[in-house]
Design goal:
This protein has about 200 residues and is of the alpha/beta class. Helices cover about 30% and strands about 20% of the residues. Bound molecules: guanosine-5'-diphosphate.
């Protein structure tokens, strides 16, 4: 698969705005501030396509990027930011419900968690959504550069256990900052979309 060129195409705040065409959809999710934008930028070799460090939780939208003119990268809104108003949280829930109501449109899921910590309750909810739609997926443990060597194996085990990941779901240590895992994630995505 080609990762260039990549462009932002549109942002959808409700299901009427979801894109539907024949191209495969690679869907990225993760809690606010986990580094989702940084991971997307890293994989695409872009500095600032997906927005990094914008006010957490402010954008409850599904964002679509077209990659290599052939594949959609779908950026789901970040979740779990404490200071988000209740109404906005409800909107997130409804948007996710609508999005996952058409699971056949999800070719591949990229769930990003914080490699330093036990996955949160909402990470668990998101994991369940991906699992229930039956699509293949990868779990990316970001911010891996922040771990001590002695923490690596135990953290991988903790993430795998907390999310009850079946063996066939890869769990990939990643650092958007150091670009650790970039090629592996590209390979995993390429294989998943068969391009
Ligand atoms: P998003 O809210 O999930 O899209 O997160 P961002 O991509 O905006 O990143 C949130 C913060 O985490 C920013 O300050 C990034 O520089 C930082 N960050 C992202 N990825 C990494 C990483 O792999 N390692 C480290 N140390 N920091 C990271």
């Amino acid at each position: 698969m080609r990762f260039e060129p990549s462009e932002f195409v549109k942002s959808a705040g409700a299901k009427s705005g979801f894109l539907r065409d024949d191209r495969p959809c690679v869907v990225f999710s993760g809690k606010s501030n986990v580094g989702k934008s940084s991971v997307i930028n890293c994989v695409l070799g872009r500095k600032n396509l997906a927005r990094v460090g914008s006010t957490p939780g402010k954008t409850t939208n599904v964002n679509y990027f077209l990659v290599g003119n052939a594949v959609w990268f779908v950026d789901l809104p970040g979740y779990g930011y404490a200071r988000v108003p209740h109404a906005e949280r409800e909107r997130w829930g409804k948007l996710m419900e609508d999005f996952f109501a058409e699971p056949e449109r999800i070719t591949f899921g990229v769930q990003i968690v914080d490699g330093r910590h036990k996955p949160t309750e909402l990470d668990g909810v998101m994991n369940e959504l991906f699992a229930s739609c039956g699509c293949p997926r990868v779990v990316v443990a970001n911010k891996w550069d922040k771990l001590k060597k002695s923490e690596m194996e135990p953290n991988l085990a903790l993430i795998r256990e907390t999310l009850a990941l079946p063996e066939e779901i890869p769990l990939l240590p990643f650092s958007a900052e150091k670009r650790t895992g970039k090629q592996e994630l590209r390979d995993i995505i390429s294989e998943a979309v068969s391009l």
